[in-house]
Specification:
5 helices; 133 residues; 0% strand; mainly alpha; flat
Length: 133
Amino acid sequence: MGPHRASAEGGRWRAALRRKYPLAPDEMIVTAAHHVYVDGPEAVLDFLAEAELAIRDPEHEIGYGPSSDLLYHVYNWLQFRAILPEGTTQVVELLKQLKQAVAEDDRELITSTAQAVEDVLEGSQNYPDFEIP
C-alpha cells in the first residue's frame, strides 16, 4: 500500500474508532488505529504463516518473534479498551490508593501513585514480557 493510500486509510480507521469511542483521547485513538489496522494485521499474517509452516513441517517451530509481535498488538488493543474513559476502574483504584497515601502522608507512595495515574491516562503502561524462559 502506497504512503498516500495508507494516510487516507489511517484517517478512515481513526474516524471509525472515534465514532465507536467518542470519549477516548486523540493519542489513544491514533495508537489503537496503529495496533489494530496498521501493524496488527501484519503480525497476524506473520503468525499464521509460521503456523502454516509448522503444519507442513513438524520440525518447524513457531518463532518467538511472530508470537510476541502478535501478542504485543493484541495486548495494546486490550490495554486501550481497559483504560478508556468508559472503563475507569483502574483509575478509581489508583485514586483510592492516592487518598490513603495522602491521609498517611506517605510522600513516596503519593508520587508513585500519581505517576501511575498519569501513565494510565497517557496509555504509557508497559506490556508484559511474553518470552518463554
